[in-house]
Amino acid sequence: MTSFEKFLSSFLSVQRTRLEADPDLFTRLALKQTPKCMVIACCDSRVDPAILANAAPGELFIVRNVANLVPPCVPDSNHHGTSAALEFAVNALHVEYIIVMGHAGCGGVWAMLTNDPELAPEHPFIHRWMNLAEPARQRTLEVLADQPLEHQAAYCEREVIKVSLRNLMSFPCIAERVAAGVLHVRGLYFDIASATLSLYHADSDSFEPVRETV
């Protein structure tokens, strides 16, 4: 079975299972979507937010891009996919949470720290995109200049999340709703090897493991 055939087979199996459990699920979903949570995650195949959160169809509004980056609000004539999704999620869907979810072993961060040729100017899309994370790279080299590359990468991955959180607040529609208390932004970091999730706390500028609450 090819990977494409496996995709089709898995799709049919999952849909059949969901319909057996809830026959009207997709009839309801066809009418509208009402997600309360937006997730901005990396396009890395290992960190699908819907799978990790065991989310049902229609539960999460997800944007995935290289290194889970949020660009600053720049209303110009260029095309802005992530910004357009943010605008729609906030103004049309009225989501209550925007989560930036980074992860360990991020290829975009590693390439940025190692000056990977794939990030060179002759690859304009990835080169310009990862430039958004330059503040995270600079901060990492300031703090961990003499540390092994693996330590720098882990630190930088978290700094990228913080860059995206700051850029979120450059969008007036987001800043206004956060100030009004009707929208909340959160940063999460997923460690693949340990399968643990950490939440960013702005007051202490730290990531703390998420633990079950009774």
Q: How many strand segments? A: 6
Q: Just give the CATH class of the largest domain.
A: Alpha Beta
Distance between the termini: 44 Å
Give the overall average pLDDT.
Answer: 95
Category from helices, strands and their pairing: alpha/beta
- Main sheet record: 6 strands, mixed
CATH fold title of the largest domain: Beta-carbonic Anhydrase, Chain A
Total domain modules: 2
**Count of alpha/pi helices:** 9
The CATH homologous superfamily of the largest domain is termed Carbonic anhydrase
Order of helices and strands: HHEHEHEHHHHHEEE
Secondary structure: helix percent: 40-55%
Query: Could you tell me the strand content as a percent range?
Result: 15-25%
Low-confidence stretches: none
Tell me the strand order in the biggest sheet: 2-1-3-4-5-6
Gyration radius from CA atoms, angstroms: 19 Å
The name of the CATH architecture of the largest domain is 3-Layer(aba) Sandwich
Shape: globular
How would you describe the overall organization of this protein?
The protein has two domains: 1-31, no CATH class; 33-209, Carbonic anhydrase (Beta-carbonic Anhydrase, Chain A). The mean pLDDT is 95. With 214 residues, it is an alpha/beta fold. It is 44% helix and 17% strand. It has helices at 3-21, 25-31, 49-52, 81-91, 107-113, 124-130, 134-143, 149-168, 172-180, and strands spanning 37-42, 60-65, 97-103, 184-191, 196-201, 206-209. The protein is globular and about 60 Å long. It has a six-stranded mixed β-sheet, with helices on one face.
